[in-house]
Each structure stands twice: as C-alpha cells, then as structure tokens.
Amino acid sequence: MIQKSKYTEFIKSEAKRLGFLACGISKAGFLEEEAPRLENWLNKNRNGEMSYMENHFDKRLNPTLLVDDAKCVISLLLNYYPDQFQKSDSYKISKYAYGQDYHFVIKEKLKELLFSIQSNIGDVSGRAFVDSAPVLDKAWAAKSGLGWIGKNSNLLTQKVGSFYFIAELIVDLDLDFDNATTDHCGTCTACIDACPTQAIVAPYIVDGSKCVSYFTIELKENIPQEMKGKFDDWAFGCDVCQDVCPWNKFSKPHNEPLFNPNPELLSMSKKDWREITEETFKVVFKNSPLKRSKFQGIKRNIDFLQ
Length: 306
Fold this sequence. Notes:
This protein is α+β, with helices and mostly antiparallel strands. It is built from 12 helices and 10 strands. The termini are far apart. The model has no long low-confidence stretch (mean pLDDT 92). Its EC number is 1.17.99.6. The active site is at residue 131.
C-alpha cells in the first residue's frame, strides 16, 4: 500500500513538472454507464459523417482491450487558454488551434512521463493516448475526479473552466484511485441558449452532426445551405459553448510556448482571410491544427461565411 501511494504521488508530481494542469487516476475497466449512452448516440447518427466513431466500439469502452493487463487510466489535462486573442474584425478560429498541433505537443510529454515512470518505478507497460484513439477521454477524466461533464458535453472544473486538452496513459501498474467530483452546472443553460446551430439538443447531449466544429473541420463535402448565416463568423471550430460558460471566467493563460499563436494570425482581418494564398497559409499555419482542413477547406469555410 505504501509503495502504491508512493508511485501515485511520484506520477502526479512528474505530471506537474511536465506542465500538465491536473492528473487523476481511475481503475481500468468496462465503462458500464457510458456503453448504452454511446450506443444510443451512434444509433441516432449524432456522429454525422464521423464514421470512425463507430469503429472499435468495445475498445472505446474497455481500456483493458487496448493495453494487456491494464490496471489504471492516468488522465491528464493540459491548459491551452491563450493570453492574446484574434482581432474583432476577423473570421474566428477555435482557441485550441492558435498554436502548434496539440497531438504532437502532448504526445511528447506523455512519452516523457511514461519513460520517467519506467525509469523510476521499473517494468511498467503502457500506452499514451491523445484524442486520436478509441478512448472516451472525458468519461475517464470525470471518473478520475478531474471535473464533471457539463451540459455542453465538455469536461468542466470549478477552478479553471474547460479550455484544456485531455490525454491518457493506460498502464499495467497498481495505483491509488481518485474519486469522481459532483456536477456544478445547476440550473444554468447558457451553453444551450448560445449554441448558434442548436447542436446541444438536450442537457448533456450534443448532436455532433449539427455542431459548427463538425461543419468547419470534419465535413468534407459542401456545407448545407440551410446553415448559411448561423456560424457567427467561425471559420475553424467553435468556442461559443465554452465562451459563455460561467466557469470559464476562471480560465488562466497557459504557459506552453508551443501553443503561442503566430503573431500574423492575431492580426489577420476578414480581408486578409479572404485574400490568403496557399503559400501564406503554409507559413502562418505551419504545424497548426488548421492543416487538418487544408487550405481548400479553410477557403470553403470562408466563402460560406461571406
């Protein structure tokens, strides 16, 4: 027991050293409560054309199918809230996309954390996950006490709101588990009322196929005409349900240099966006999440917004 607590303490202090905002630990096992919810969500086609969300259904719900003999899920949060923002006369991009692609930034930190665990604790097997594998990030983070899942289906915390990334290490090591926290959304419906496309179809249920982020990032075809005029100038992603959340009054700027925006991005006006060339796009958004939509995708979104 003493050893287990010592290992747990070590991992949490290492996570802090690497710049993570928080670290919580939960027991690896089948997510019983989430299984029917996920099935229902998929059956109603709320994933739209994100067909990858239907893949690996069992693995999404059971981390022991991802890591042999997995004992626990170490959930980690990394802040991305910026200290500078785009100018008001601009097409908007989601704050998480201001800097370098978070997949690479976080993967490096997770590798270092796993290496540190193996170097100091011994023969530990594990895998790192950042949003690109069949892991229900928010469910695990909530289970390990890092926050609660709010009415906008984002993980929320009382101290720092919701502008952070979630990642995991699934390991075959026995550790002390954290307890889930309570829901503090109360009677607030700010996110539901503010959603530009009414994608939050009920408290705690988001129809992914109606979300501005889905249309501007995931959808590869033309954006449906009935959405014209509803995007509130969002060209890549959408932060509305986070921006209006009262808990985000407590967001603090991150301290990760790789998430700092290219100064050119912050100074771009709508005119600059409309006239952007592929060459400029490649320079300003080098290693950026915007590369996912590619130049053509961003052009399509901006044309749609005019």
